Amino acid sequence: MTTDPDVPAPDPTPTSTAPHPWRRYVAIGDSFTEGIGDPEPSSPGGHRGWADRVAEVLAAQVDDFAYANLAVRGKLIGQIVADQIEPAIELHPDLVTFSAGGNDVIRPGSDPDAVAEQFEDAVVRLSATGATLVVFTGIDTNFTPVFRGIRGKVAIFNENVRAIAEANDCIVADQWGLKTVQDMRFFDDDRLHYNSLGHHEVARMVLRTLHVPNDLQPMRPDPLPAMTWRAARANDLVWAREHLVPWALRRLRHQSSGDHVRPKRPEPLPVVAAAAAAAAAAAGADAEAAAAAGVRAAEAEARARAARTEGTGSEEEGSGR
């Protein structure tokens, strides 16, 4: 049997059919966790991403599952620690995914060991909640000329992440070992963020790491178009003008792409909202109608949950307990 190198290998058949134990999932991080590069007008914030995809699978397998996503694009690890850790703890999650430090490591002159110290502070605080904590290594950048020069810094940071995870009983989601996505066809035009295919593969990897059975299948990327040297250089110039120069100017001005962005899911909500919105979009509704469908679904689920809670309280009061 031959293996097509362009198609990711299917996940091994799960050995356990028991439902997963999580009911409240909070995602923390930057653009990677917010879902940038995976546009979906019907999703909160206009992006879907790997965390939404993971939440959709988890929500489909159990009742009363809720999901919050506090991630904001462009944030450095110090900002994530300051702005997201305590709000995440206050949401009382039993599952947390924490990815941070990438925006620090790619900056010239940054120290991956110093970044890891802030990472460890956040991990210690999150681990103290008793929630299952998933942390991420950075991707192996050897495949991309843009970031090949920081490969050593990423490797140093990853070793710190692994040591911190072992000391605090965390689960490691290993992007460095995810060879499938080390291919520019899994990346957006900005050459920095995953596209929909990349986010899909990360979601599959996270679910494998959590040992959660799922039906997500490998997705085939389109073949790379034939391109002359001149055309490739012209493409590089377009990328530099549209993505690299704006990024550099924001650094010089001490600005961030996330300066005026709010978390897309600041409160734990049923994931049925995203599913309903996606279904409406697939049925041909426009983005506004699809989003409205999602909101209505979330409100309906919240009302149902409140009714169940009220009914339980009435029964307990009537029984004298």
Explain what you see.
The chain is α/β, with parallel strands linked by helices and 321 residues long. The chain has a domain at 24-218 and 246-269: SGNH hydrolase (Rossmann fold), CATH 3.40.50. It is built from ten helices and six strands, in the order βααβαβααβαβααβαα. The protein has helices spanning 31-34, 49-61, 77-90, 102-105, 112-127, 151-167, 196-209, 229-252, 272-282, 287-319, and strands spanning 24-28, 66-69, 95-98, 132-136, 171-173, 265-269. Mean pLDDT is 82; it is low at 1-5 and 307-321. Keywords: Hydrolase. This is SGNH/GDSL hydrolase family protein. It comes from Microbacterium lushaniae. Residues 1-23, 296-321 are annotated as: Disordered.
Provide tags for this entry.
single chain; 321 residues; alpha/beta; Rossmann fold; six-stranded mixed β-sheet; 6 strands; globular; disordered N terminus
Report the radius of gyration as a whole number of Å. Answer: 21 Å
Largest sheet: 6 strands, mixed
Order of helices and strands: EHHEHEHHEHEHHEHH
CATH superfamily of the domain at 24-218 and 246-269: SGNH hydrolase
CATH topology of the domain at 24-218 and 246-269: Rossmann fold
Q: How much helical structure, as a percent, in the residues?
A: 40-55%
Count of alpha and pi helical runs: 10
Distance between the termini: 64 Å
The CATH class name of the domain at 24-218 and 246-269 reads Alpha Beta
| CATH architecture annotation of the domain at 24-218 and 246-269 | 3-Layer(aba) Sandwich
Spatial strand order of the main sheet: 5-4-3-1-2-6
Record field, number of beta strands: 6
